[in-house]
Amino acid sequence: MRRHRNIKIVATLGPASSDEATISALFEAGADVFRLNMSHGDHADHRERHDIIRRIEAELDRPIAILADLQGPKLRVGQFGSGAHDLEDGQDFRFDLDPAPGDGTRVQLPHPEIFAALEPGSELLVNDGKIRLKVERCGSDFADCTVTVGGTISDRKGVNVPDVVLPLAALSGKDRDDLEFACELGVDWLALSFVQRAADVTEARELARGRAAILSKIEKPAAVRAFAEILAASDGIMVARGDLGVELPVQSVPPIQKRLVRQCRAAAKPVIVATQMLESMIESPMPTRAEVSDVANAIYEGADAVMLSAESAAGHYPIDAVRTMDSVARSVESDPTYREVIEASRKADRTSVADGIVAAAREIAETTDIAAICAHTQSGTTVGLVARERPRTPIIAMSPEMRVLRRLCLTWGTHCVLTDPLTRFREAVISAARVARDFGFADKTQQIVITAGVPFNIPGTTNILRVATCDERLINRVDPE
What we know:
Elements: E1 8-13, H1 20-29, E2 33-37, H2 43-60, E3 65-69, E4 85-87, E5 92-96, E6 106-108, H3 112-117, E7 123-126, E8 131-138, E9 142-149, E10 151-153, E11 159-160, H4 173-185, E12 189-192, H5 198-208, E13 213-218, H6 221-225, H7 227-233, E14 236-240, H8 241-247, H9 253-266, E15 271-274, H10 289-301, E16 305-308, H11 310-313, H12 318-333, H13 336-344, H14 353-367, E17 370-376, H15 381-388, E18 395-399, H16 402-408, E19 414-418, H17 425-438, E20 447-453, E21 462-469, H18 472-478
Helix pairs in contact: 1-12, 5-7, 10-12
């Protein structure tokens, strides 16, 4: 019988994982979703990787999701006239719009939007928070600051402004070009950086025009504060802990992670936990114990996916990193405590027929000898609702829409299978039984639960639940032609 892993693995592609043999090995090792990081490489690089993934998908007859991660606006200081400068605690330092080379007392900050949002008491962080400054006085073209944490400042270092909402769109000119390229290429998910408000998500959705699902990266305090609205506007969420840990106290990130994962699950929308999960495996074939615990913690929380960034994109051991995540996931999911934690955190407002049907499907599957829950879906919504229940039995997502199945590769517990369009419920039962047998989830002596909607091939019509045998001879006796 097939071994089944519920949590999904997202692997970022890059210089260490660009050839077909490596990408195929990453998939075989356990990667479910491949991330194209638009911050690095050019369109030709990403097109080549996309084409390789689609060839592997066709060869293996398995849907594979592709996520294009947009860079977002990058806020950086200007250049210095004589190299790097050391800023000391307590000294004065000015940011302004003057393009003249900087020195030990000032530097250009070529973002008037920042000055428009600053006020006395605001904090500016430079170089991933290694340098911290407090704004004392500011205007439309300057900010006089006191250095609270000193360090070395040099050309083009990044700037974070954690405690204000900046009047900046989440999409830069580059992002708009990358978004259109990615949608024309046919990616399944767009990850949106620098999200501060729900309107940022709405703008990206309008540009995507349904060609890709929108996944919002939560990496700014403003996004945490506006999370309910952002979640409602998004198709999925990424908890981007790296930038969150720069702009917020690091000790606040774990509780935020837990809270966001639970809210995503309640909304039946996939959530990825990302950043530095197996960071040491960039250089080492073995992770640290703390990293393994971090991955395990995300799995215990009920996240839909965990993500590898530089570990698979630029590290020395990309395939080992995926294998490690896969091994950790299988170990956690076989732990009885995992089921206790997952089931104790099951909480959802059930207000529709579909809500009731998927809850009943999970109850039946867990109280009787059911091999799998087979969900016929046109839009993917019902499968998301089944996954929200976190059932003990595998979820088989069945659809005639490859676009839908690829997106569902990010959803917890789903095994995605392309099927023919349905016209009768008997076809749905037989199709589910064959898929469950063919993919090793059941044999003909076992039973499955089937959910579907009548009339068929119309999104949002889930209204039938059926317990059926996987023996077609018995199905034919119950449902003759």
